């Protein structure tokens, strides 16, 4: 099945490219921010167990305990860093975007690995998509099960985030647990720069309410850099972030 986006770009809906990491209750689930793995377990009422294989239920009936920021692919709005509540479900209202996939090798800066403005400027080469998808090198498959806590992963420089914002890019996707440095004393420079948040306690009028950041994606090496249509899918959580399923389509 083929479809046209904005009467300009044709995509084949039968060939989705999923760049999300599934959420599981196994040790293969990626984890960040010092928490344990997700819990997926059947509801128990006395002798009744919500699991068909246990022989006491006609349905599988699980509770799931997880954290969207720490347990896999998620999409967040500026409510992630503001005193006032903002919901990703209210911030993200359209779901198809022209996206540019770029691959960058973070630069060594002291003990850190940093994605710089120059990386983004060079990779985009004058193009201004609605969404940018950043794949970091080396692109190890172990990212899909990484345990990021206290490992000082690579991050995006403040200048790079400002450049992305000033370019007019609305949606930023990255294969890291955060666009910011793990231990940064709460500065959150890249988050604030991308969303143009000057004061988390008193939101400025030009803050980017409809811009989103998606973290902990995985983009296989078989997927080539270049232009795609991005379908950014979230669950309808009234929360600052939701687990998400970004899907790419070749144009």
TrEMBL record:
It comes from the Bacteria. One of its GO terms (molecular function) is arylformamidase activity. GO terms for biological process: L-tryptophan catabolic process to kynurenine. It holds the Pfam family Cyclase. InterPro entries: KFase/CYL (IPR007325), KFase_sf (IPR037175). Keywords: Hydrolase. This is Metal-dependent hydrolase. It comes from Flavobacterium hydatis.
